[in-house]
């Protein structure tokens, strides 16, 4: 799990596809993969906050009216790396049951520390 998350963070932060994600990029395309990665990493970042506040974990709800949600499902069905880390059940993304709590916790922490998108500001019209 840590390898996939590290590669996702590297890809997001550098806009260059990391080696572990080359197959995923072939499956859904570079732009779609980026959107999927940002949504997953953002969810894991929120999961870290829940964990530190001793609140229960929640799955990432997938709305199949959105392309990125369909792409998440496609990646889990078609890419062995994604399927080893995540699973889709009843319209939600969650961790693969074979993962241990310490690697999940470490992945959440990596996302919390490594994903800091720039804030966009808009100018007020005069």
Structure overview:
There is one protein chain. This protein has 126 residues and is mainly alpha-helical. It has one domain. The protein is 60% helix and 8% strand. It contains six helices and three strands, in the order αααβααββα. The chain has helices spanning 2-14, 22-28, 30-52, 67-78, 80-85, 101-114, and strands at 60-61, 86-89, 92-95. It has a three-stranded antiparallel beta sheet. A hairpin with a 2-residue loop joins strand 2 and strand 3 (92-95). Helix 2 packs across helix 3 and helix 3 (30-52) packs across helix 4. The mean pLDDT is 93.
Quick structural summary:
With 126 residues, the protein is mostly helical. The chain has helices spanning 2-14, 22-28, 30-52, 67-78, 80-85, 101-114, and strands spanning 60-61, 86-89, 92-95.
Strand order of the largest sheet: 1-3-2
What is the structural class? mainly alpha
Shape summary: globular
Summarize the helix and strand pattern as letters. Answer: HHHEHHEEH
Give the number of domains.
1
Low-pLDDT ranges: none
Rg, Å, rounded: 15 Å
The average pLDDT score comes to 93
Distance separating the two termini:
49 Å
Strand content: 5-15%
Number of strands: 3
Helix content: 55-70%
- Major sheet: 3 strands, antiparallel
- Provide a count of the helices: 6
């Amino acid at each position: 799990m840590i390898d996939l998350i590290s590669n996702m963070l590297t890809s997001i932060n550098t806009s260059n596809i990391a080696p572990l994600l080359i197959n995923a990029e072939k499956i859904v395309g570079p732009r779609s993969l980026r959107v999927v990665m940002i949504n997953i990493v953002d969810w894991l970042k929120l999961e870290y906050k829940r964990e530190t506040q001793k609140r229960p974990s929640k799955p990432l709800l997938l709305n199949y009216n959105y392309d990125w949600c369909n792409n998440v499902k496609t990646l889990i069905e078609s890419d062995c790396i994604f399927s080893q880390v995540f699973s889709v059940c009843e319209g939600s993304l969650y961790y693969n049951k074979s993962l241990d709590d310490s690697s999940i916790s470490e992945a959440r922490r990596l996302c919390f520390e490594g994903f800091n998108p720039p804030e966009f500001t808009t100018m007020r019209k005069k």
